[in-house]
Amino acid sequence: MKTGLIMEGGAMRGMFTAGVIDVMMENDIHYDGAIGVSAGASFGCNYQSWQIGRVIRYNERFAKDPRFGSMRSLLLTGDYYGAEFCYHRLPTELDYFDVETFESNPMEFYCVCTDVDTGKPVYHKCKDGKYEDLEWIRASASMPIFSEPVEIGGRRLLDGGISDSIPLKYFQYKGFEKNVVILTQPKGYVKKKSKAAPLIPIALRKYPRVAKRLQTRAEAYNKQIAYVEEQAELGNTLVIYPPCKLEVGKTEHDPDKLRFVYEIGREEGERMLDEVIEFLKK
Q1: 141 and 81 Cβ atoms separated by less than 8 Å
Q2: Which residues contact 122 (CB under 8 A, 6 or more apart)?
Q3: For 228-252, b where at least 16 C-beta lie within 10 A, e where not — what string?
Q4: Are strands 121-125 and 237-240 parallel, antiparallel or unpaired?
Q5: Tens digit of pLDDT for each residue in 144-191?
Q6: Residues near 117 by Cβ (< 8 Å), separated by ≥ 6?
């Protein structure tokens, strides 16, 4: 029976996920496959490279560096999180992303993006953790308005959370029968329609299919949560939730707040550890 790990996005709420997966790796928990969306992809790929602590390390180190993320970067490049710095210079020079381990690890790693021209999700299975895979991961985490679309293979791509925030159904379709899902909102969370919804078609007039998806995202997200909970009741899915609302900004620059959310993830990972081990044994 194939086991899967599914990691939701949520911008810097993803530091919670980073804490959880570090505890899992420290306790030698392996999966047949993992899939990440947005921050779940950009942080979760470190599970494939088995780099415990890397996410919190580089986020703390570069939290206040304008090359890492800033309005200056957004104005100059169209990307709040500097594409070249974050996804190419940082992993090859400043905090090495272990592509050798990534490529040799038998676990499969997928990321989810959204096709700008169709509004549909696109799923990519990473092969070696090198340049093209990092571009896919960048695309998965490229938030509308804060990022330009990433062009790969004739497609224009943006944040996977626009079209498939919690890809449990996709992973089940791929044959992963037992799945651990890490969410970044507490149990009972209900997504409400954005007050800015009427402005979305204006702000994203160049990308009408993306705008349409975002206008109905709350309803779609809540349906996905209901499905995850239904599958948990059936016993084939284990869900890890934050114990409370995570008080951290989408573009957080305070390393102490990032560390705080990361430690919440570690605590929850440790609390759920025995349950995860038992779930994966069955």
Answers
A1: yes
A2: 112, 113, 114, 115, 155, 157
A3: beebeeeebbbbbbbeeebebeeeb
A4: unpaired
A5: 999 999 999 999 999 999 999 999 999 999 999 999 999 999 999 999
A6: 155, 156, 209
**Two tokens at 63?**
């939290």
List alpha helices for the chain, DSSP H: 14-26, 39-48, 54-62, 71-77, 83-84, 99-104, 131-140, 168-173, 200-203, 208-215, 217-234, 255-281
Q: How many residues does the chain have?
A: 282
Residue closest to 136 by CA, chosen among 163, 117, 109, 118: 109
Question: What is the separation of C-alpha 221 from the centre of its chain, rounded to a whole number of angstroms?
Answer: 15
CB-CB contact of 112 with 37 (8 Å)? yes
Rg for the chain (alpha carbons), in Å? 17
Residue 173 tokens read as 């379709």
Q: The tokens of 117 are what?
A: 């021209």
pTM value > 0.90: yes
**Per residue in 193-250, pLDDT tens?**
887 777 888 889 999 999 999 999 999 999 999 999 999 999 999 999 999 999 999 9
Q: Of 257, 269, 159, whose CA–CA distance to 214 is shortest?
A: 159
Fill in the DSSP letter of residue 149: P
The torsion angles phi and psi of 152, rounded to 5 degrees, stand at -140, 125
- The per-residue pLDDT for 193 is 85
- Kindly provide the b/e burial profile for residues 132-153, where b requires at least 16 CB atoms within 10 angstroms of the residue's own CB: ebbbbbbbbbbbbebbebbebe
